[in-house]
């Protein structure tokens, strides 16, 4: 469809302040100064468009604060502002080898009477758990690159067949052809809230959303047909566009990109490769030369589901072209096997050796094959699951709602993992090739979004209490960092070697992932009882024996 026929104008009459320049100004909560700022004009957020910029203020808080802010504040001439959401800010300067932890939170207050009812016109939050509500409200507070509007009739829900959080959009519906996929939040009274990726697809006329993208039910208080498509990111990323132009013999990356050293390979991925048996000399060689873009043999690719439905199970398609002895060929024609993982990668089962498709499968039409070949470098496309577990879930419990996957295709490292006869690599190869979930894997955190049969009239108050529970959020953040350190410590032998198969290290790795998840989904962390004492008593209340 033509963009002019598909996209609609904003249904909201927002109060624009684009001609005014705001500065942060002081404000006191119980005698403690805070940084208060109106939502910046240059940044886009759904709440800003829905309520109007002049009705919003963000208040920055440190999670270490012992004094809890109020659920309602007065500022700007004694106008009343009610707490609507909170967005945790990660400390990006975590230090070498230390995972970033939460340090601050931006509290968003809205000047609106009957805020609960107004939010209820967007989605039906009243049937959700407080932890889920907090996460969903944060999505609507978060900044975005762009927000466009469509009608409810332009959205189609499709059956879940291993989509894992990825849907599709028609070619041309957003105007530009300079991207293949988009990370979105899609919200509207008749939709509820959907979250994930949408991939460009031919032969459809509506945006298609699988059930795995549904994160909040539709409103019971409003029947308006507007739908906001909140665009978080476009893909391929600028980094992968440049990388694709380097790999493609018909491309040429910008000189400025070529002259910059690439970031060193993450210590987390280095630890795992050593743990699988890759020698220090082989790994150190690659870490050294991979700072040069020409020698770089790994990439972070966004995961999407197969738009054709014809990819063979347990094999992937990696978009883009590379140079070979035969000239310009598809990535999978040259690199037939790759090492794939994703962050966080701590357990032995968190990485896999996977085959890459380089030729059209017999069951696939030429048009579908041409579609796959039209995508630029930067996407890893997973097959739809029919009867087996979706492949992304076998790779560090991943999904396709915006996760990026670490893809390594260095020949020397792969040659060692695939052919080495040493004991550790032979043991690891069986696990790297095993495309099944571990039998009897313990799941202490339920990520499924379930809805209550009865509405909770106090849902906003409970969500506000969770947002303002700084001590719990701070403890959860510190627990994530602590478990990460304990995992690294347990997997390091007295001789300084890496043993990722150590039972305690595996237990801490599982607990670390759960600690990340309970902040969004609630629940407790499973950890063997003899390891509880490794954590402070203040954090042990979040544990359950395994």
Explain what the structure shows.
This protein has about 550 residues and is α+β, with helices and mostly antiparallel strands. It contains 16 helices and 24 strands. Strands 1-2-3-6-5-4 form a six-stranded antiparallel sheet, sandwiched between helices. Strands 7, 9, 10, 11, 13 and 14 form a six-stranded mixed sheet that branches. A six-stranded mixed β-barrel has the order 15-21-16-20-19-22. Strand 4 and strand 5 form a beta hairpin. Helix 11 crosses helix 12 and helix 14 packs antiparallel against helix 15. The longest helix is centred in the last third of the chain and has 21 residues. It is globular. The protein starts with a helix and ends with a strand. About 5% of the residues have low confidence.
Low-confidence stretches: 15-40
Task: Note the gap between the termini.
Answer: 54 Å
What is the overall pLDDT average? 86
Strand content: 25-35%
What is the percent of helical residues? 25-40%
Structural class by SSE content: alpha+beta
| Number of distinct helices | 16
Major beta-sheet overview: 6 strands, antiparallel
Rg computed from alpha carbons, rounded to a whole number of angstroms: 24 Å
In short:
With 546 residues, the protein is α+β, with helices and mostly antiparallel strands.
Outline the fold blueprint.
Elements: H1 3-6, E1 25-29, E2 32-38, H2 46-51, E3 56-62, E4 72-75, E5 79-90, E6 102-110, H3 115-120, H4 130-141, E7 146-151, E8 155-158, E9 166-170, E10 181-188, E11 192-201, E12 207-210, E13 214-216, E14 226-235, H5 238-247, H6 255-259, H7 267-275, H8 280-289, E15 298-305, E16 315-318, E17 321-324, E18 327-330, H9 331-334, E19 337-341, E20 352-356, H10 366-374, E21 379-382, E22 404-408, H11 411-419, H12 423-433, H13 459-467, H14 470-490, H15 503-521, E23 525-527, H16 537-540, E24 543-545
Helix pairs in contact: 4-13, 11-12, 14-15
């Amino acid at each position: 469809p033509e963009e002019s026929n598909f996209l609609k104008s904003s249904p909201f009459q927002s109060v624009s302040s684009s001609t005014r320049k705001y500065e942060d100004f002081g404000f006191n909560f119980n005698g403690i100064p805070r940084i208060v700022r109106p939502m910046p004009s240059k940044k886009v957020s759904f709440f800003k468009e829905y309520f109007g910029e002049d009705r919003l203020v963000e208040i920055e808080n440190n999670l270490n604060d012992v004094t809890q802010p109020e659920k309602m504040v007065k500022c700007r001439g004694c106008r009343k502002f009610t707490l609507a959401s909170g967005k945790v800010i990660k400390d990006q300067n975590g230090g070498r080898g230390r995972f970033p932890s939460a340090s601050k939170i931006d509290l968003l207050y809205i000047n609106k009477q009957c805020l609960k009812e107004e939010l209820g016109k967007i989605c039906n939050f009243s049937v959700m758990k407080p932890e889920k509500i907090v996460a969903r409200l944060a999505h609507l507070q978060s900044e975005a690159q762009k927000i466009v509007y469509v009608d409810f009739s332009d959205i189609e829900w499709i059956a879940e067949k291993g989509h894992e959080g990825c849907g599709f959009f028609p070619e041309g519906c957003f105007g530009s052809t300079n991207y293949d996929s988009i990370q979105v939040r899609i919200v509207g009274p008749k939709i509820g809230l959907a979250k994930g990726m949408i991939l460009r697809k031919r032969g459809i006329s509506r945006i298609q959303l699988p059930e795995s993208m549904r994160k909040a039910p539709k409103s019971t208080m409003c029947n308006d047909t507007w739908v906001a498509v909140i665009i978080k990111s476009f893909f391929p990323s600028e980094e992968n566009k440049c990388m694709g132009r380097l790999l493609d013999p018909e491309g040429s990356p910008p000189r400025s990109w070529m002259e910059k050293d690439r970031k060193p390979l993450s210590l987390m991925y280095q630890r795992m490769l050593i743990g699988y048996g890759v020698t220090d000399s082989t790994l150190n060689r690659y870490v050294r030369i991979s700072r040069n873009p020409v020698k770089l043999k790994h990439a972070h690719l966004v995961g999407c589901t197969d738009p054709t439905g014809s990819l063979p199970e347990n094999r992937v398609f990696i978009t883009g072209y590379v140079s070979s002895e035969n000239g310009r060929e598809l990535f999978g024609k040259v690199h037939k096997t790759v090492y794939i993982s994703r962050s966080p990668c701590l357990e032995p089962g968190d990485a896999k050796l996977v085959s890459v498709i380089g030729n059209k499968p017999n069951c696939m039409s030429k048009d579908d094959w041409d579609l796959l070949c039209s995508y630029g470098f930067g996407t890893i496309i997973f097959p739809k699951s029919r009867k087996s577990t979706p492949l992304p879930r076998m790779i560090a419990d991943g999904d396709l709602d915006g996760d990026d996957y670490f893809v390594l295709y260095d020949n020397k490292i792969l040659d060692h993992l695939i052919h080495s006869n040493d004991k550790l690599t032979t043991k690891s190869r069986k696990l790297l090739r095993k495309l099944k979930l571990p039998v009897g894997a313990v799941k202490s955190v339920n990520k499924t979004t379930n809805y209550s049969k009865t509405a909770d009239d106090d849902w906003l108050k409970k969500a506000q209490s969770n947002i303002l529970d700084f001590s719990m959020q701070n403890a959860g953040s510190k627990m994530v960092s602590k478990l990460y350190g304990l995992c690294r410590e347990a997997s390091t032998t007295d001789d300084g070697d890496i043993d990722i198969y150590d039972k305690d290290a595996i237990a801490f790795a599982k607990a670390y992932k759960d600690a990340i998840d309970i902040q969004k989904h609630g629940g407790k962390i499973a950890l063997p009882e003899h390891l509880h004492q490794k954590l402070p008593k203040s954090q042990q209340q979040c544990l359950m024996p395994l």
